[in-house]
Amino acid sequence: RGPAPSRSTSRLPPWNTGGTLSYAYALPKNKSWDKGTVKGRPIGSCCTTPDRTAGYEASQVLAFVFKAVRPAPVQGYLHMDNCTDLSARVAAINETLLSGDFAGGCLKIRCCDVAQLYTNLSHDVVIRAVAWHVGMYHGTVRNSDRVAIPIRGRAPKRSIHRGASGNPATHRTWLTDDALRVLIYDCRYAYMSLGDIILRQVKGLIM
Known about the structure:
By secondary structure, the chain is an alpha+beta fold. The chain has helices at about 30-35, 50-70, 85-95, 115-120, 125-140, 175-190; strands at about 20-30, 40-45, 145-150, 160, 170-175, 190-195, 195-200. Strand 6 (about 190-195) and strand 7 (about 195-200) form a beta hairpin. The strands form 2 sheets. The chain has a 4-stranded mixed sheet, with no helix packed on it. A 3-stranded antiparallel sheet has the order 4-3-5. Helix 2 (about 50-70) crosses helix 6.
């Protein structure tokens, strides 16, 4: 077991001393049933890990950073702060495709996938890419080194905002560098159990 991430000046979620390793299992792929061979997607459950809360909140910080530094492209991104927004987002996309510049036109829709993306990503590449985004975020506006994350069950997910929290009872102030440290920690110590065997993931990300 490695050292806990540096806490710097922010008050991060407590380290769960009663936590355990994540456990690995295979999630069957529906599309493989029609081909006669059932394939599985490797999954690592992190619901019992010591840094579960810190990892969850760090991911919210980094998602907020990505959204802030993302340039406005011609094509849109299916970014959602809440999974319950899916139906509304799909309806809005359909409305866009059926109106404006697309009205009455011929549309080509392609569904693409990057094969083995999560299972082949280099940890160093992931860390460098995220560090670049955090650096870009620091150069945006004043107080860009802090993000206030809503504490689960105490505030709506959409209430995440830039800067320090005005109410520590409902929002936790994170330094963006601390969120990056949590990512580095999770990459360096990506252990999981598979039955009686303990594995360390040295390439790819735990899903």
